[in-house]
Amino acid sequence: xxxxxxxxxxxxxxxxxxxxxxxxxxxxxxxxxxxxxxxxxxxxxxxxxxxxxxxxxxxxxxxxxxxxxxxxxxxxxxxxxxxxxxxxxxxxxxxxxxxxxxxxxxxxxxxxxxxxxxxxxxxxxxxxxxxxxxxxxxxxxxxxxxxxxxxxxxxxxxxxxxxxxxxxxxxxxxxxxxxxxxxxxxxxxxxxxxxxxxxxxxxxxxxxxxxxxxxxxxxxxxxxxxxxxxxxxxxxxxxxxxxxxxxxxxxxxxxxxxxxxxxxxxxxxxxxxxxxxxxxxxxxxxxxxxxxxxxxxxxxxxxxxxxxxxxxxxxxxxxxxxxxxxxxxxxxxxxxxxxxxxxxxxxx
Length: 348
Known about the structure:
Layout: E1 2-7, H1 18-31, E2 35-38, H2 48-56, E3 61-64, E4 67-68, H3 74-87, E5 92-97, H4 101-107, H5 115-130, E6 137-138, E7 143-144, E8 166-168, H6 173-182, E9 185-187, H7 197-208, E10 218-227, H8 232-248, H9 256-278, H10 282-287, H11 291-297, E11 299-301, H12 303-316, E12 320-325, H13 330-347
Parallel strand pairs: 1-2, 1-12, 2-3, 3-5, 4-5, 5-8, 8-9, 9-10, 10-11, 10-12
Antiparallel strand pairs: 6-7
Helix pairs in contact: 1-13, 3-5, 6-7, 8-9, 12-13
């Protein structure tokens, strides 16, 4: 089982702490981490940090986790991916996602209608570019060249590169099936190994419907890792993060993260936490997050407890564990990360 990490997030850029993030990634590469993913929400974009990291690292893979398809045209996404692959000596991983209505409609000013159709069409056009073909395409939401205009179908001047993997961040059943059908990897959230089938059954179904198997897809999920014999020391922040996910990651009507936890056996808690959060009763929402829900979604406890959790992820079919190592400073986070890698090597 490989290990990946993430940098950035919804508040990225606020503290101008990118130098510390670079130090973290450089040291993580030395420890043997396989990939780093840059978040793109409403803070820093996902691509620019990776371009800088490409110059500061040598082996670690560099992935967008994720590029919002509403924020760029498919052709620009393809151009960016090809550029990043060339700059990084083919270490680039293209992570895509549809985001949610609050970001798509509120920030990008684009309709959230039919996100999966838009995602499929985006991938179709990107793959044409990766294959070095002319970008001639007729879909429901994307047509190249523009009908009735003066343009003609163009082939990118960059050489094609079919080796660039495409990862999808998906959560709904139909979106998970699309991942199994089209993607090289899955960037999963709202996942617990105990109820892995709530996600993986749909990915497997999509894969098998197109002559593939689940093993063809890199399954990347995980959570916070904290070597803490007394879980009460870290439970507060983790409950707050879970409440934010269940209540704020989407609208009151559309929250894919909440829906995924409901499918995974937490329906009553997910509904109640969301209800309280949307009503502005955030402290009550945090208090309603079950401790067991947090423990099942993360890797927290003493060394033996975390070893058992790692084994559960591996047994569930996770091929890459995406971790957020806990720690008060860089050295503490790296110590947590190193300890996690040691335990995984023992399991392997």
